[in-house]
Amino acid sequence: DGGSLDLILKKVMRIPEHILGKITVAVLRGLSYLRERHRIMHRDIKPSNILVNHQGEIKLCDFGVSAQLIDSTLQTFIGTRSYMSPERLEGAHYGIMSDIWSLGLSLVEMALGRYPIPPPSTKDIDDLFKQDPNGNRPRPEGFGCYKVLAIFELMEWIVNEAPPSLPQTHFSPEFCDFIDRCLKKSTTERADLNTLLHHPFYKRYENESDNQDVSSWIRQVCHLEQNQLNDNNSRRSGGNKC
Does the annotation count 44 as an active-site position? Predict the structure, then answer.
């Protein structure tokens, strides 16, 4: 009942790191379950396919493009291209490592409040944290506007340019390292699922069994949205009386 994370991101300027930590744990557990129990990879990890509710539960959705792994690799071109790994865009064989890339890219997007390709400037990120130091400010109209690349420009950027990253000036070293390991362009350098399940960033949030933090934050976001709607209605009512 909280909606997907892309909808949540339209209500706030960014999602704070401690909430992203809980999201990371939930998604990696989901990917691990799919692989170990069903030999399936998701193939379309992105914010709109991660759901949250007011109880703080986080779940993957939309398995319409999921596929069974045969010898751990696939070679079909199905999914959302803006979140695809370099090897998928190049038409190479791919496996669960492609989902790892998509998770890393999604986390950067949610941490910065905008799709990270092309990357925001250092000033843009500094300004974001000045305006929203705690990750709980309502998103102003027009916030997050940036140059949108044509799909072929975007694909070329993902394949040929440096991958997105997070600055340690605003994020913990563990989170920055986790992202860097997810977004290695070479699959031989990219962290696999088992490595990420033992990463310090994952371990920090793994044993926090209750969902209270996520639940409280989601309720706060929905409360902000309701307040904004009430303010807008009040302005309209005031305008009609003039």
Answer: yes
